What does this fold into?
Amino acid sequence: MVPVTFDKVRKQFGALVALPGLDLAIAAGEFVSLLGPSGCGKTTTLRMLAGLEQPTSGRILIGERMVNDLAPSERDIAMVFQSYALYPHMSVAQNIAYPLRKRGVPKAERPAKVKAVADLLQLGPLLERRPRQLSGGQQQRVALGRALVREPKVFLLDEPLSNLDAKLRAHMRAELIELHRRLGKTMVYVTHDQLEAMTMSTRIAVMQGGTLQQFATPAEIYHRPANAFVAGFIGTPAMTLADGEIAAGERGPLLKLGELRLDLPPGHLAVQPEGILKVTVGVRPEDVLLGRGEGRASIRVVEPTGHESIVLAKAGDVAFTIRVPGDAGLCPGDSVPFDLRRDHLHIFDRESGRRLNADRNFAAIQPMSRDGYDNPSSCGGIVTRHALSNGGAG
Ligand SMILES: Nc1ncnc2c1ncn2[C@@H]1O[C@H](COP(=O)(O)OP(=O)(O)O)[C@@H](O)[C@H]1O
Ligand SMILES: [Mg+2]
It folds into this structure.
């Protein structure tokens, strides 16, 4: 297991600055996702780590070693791409063995290595087949096998699941988690799909416009987004983001949000508002309460999904996305009492987008390995707020 470090890594393509200066320290054995919208620089970051692209400036380290001047083949990494590009005329076994052949691993040693990888990925019964005789998921497993067979120190994956259908993607997510657990290797995974990043990663690096926005566990990113961009990007359905104003009230900060006037809980903010503070307020769909409270919401759209419904409702000028259990018995046009979980409101500076919450009720969660990730008490997945706030009050 080795760490991977980006130290002020800048990348320009001519006049275009793809990455102005990336600092990212990935710990040994982590599964880190680079997550962000198309064009934010994820693939460029991964290709520089692989040695397929040269940084304009800055240093990249694999373990203690600076690799800027090393060829891809000298970096002890393996990369899996979105298009798995198997050799159609070769069998599965030959495809997996190909990197060994290319590197001059003696012929006698190859079958054992191929078998070990085939066992790991449950490809044993398929070894004699040709790629076209495999399903998309099986082909992707062969591509993984071809990367694994060299036993690289670091494993790089660029949107490896995006060609698969939704059901198979879910299955492969579970397989990749299991694979990471068994191998314990450092993995860097590029995706624009927040669900993939949230479910698999020990930590997520959220990027936008070539700039790292937040690098933290999935739970932390969900519950404490560092800025309004991360807040809006993570979560399905997305949280409501609306303009608000905060002023000093009699009982502490008073939030004006559309027609609502809400006293914020004591200590909710890391700042003391002086005069009027212009903010962006973030409200997760599960933090809107229907059927109680002094506000009124007018139901616009109800989308039942079975175990829950997603409701679009307007309170004054603000359109909220709301998650309710079951079918909720709501109809468009209904006017219902409505409240917000005040202690769960995300407050961002409207100009800079920076988070203003004090977050004193949340524990800092920093699992670095799959063990940490799997330990329920410090779980890196999406844990409930209840578990989170019980984890570290004070
Ligand atoms: N070889 C290249 N030449 C010129 N511009 C490039 C090249 N590769 C990437 N870019 C640009 O760099 C930015 C980041 O691209 P990329 O890393 O592929 O983003 P992502 O993988 O997040 O979608 C984009 O603006 C893209 O157009
Ligand atoms: Mg890409």
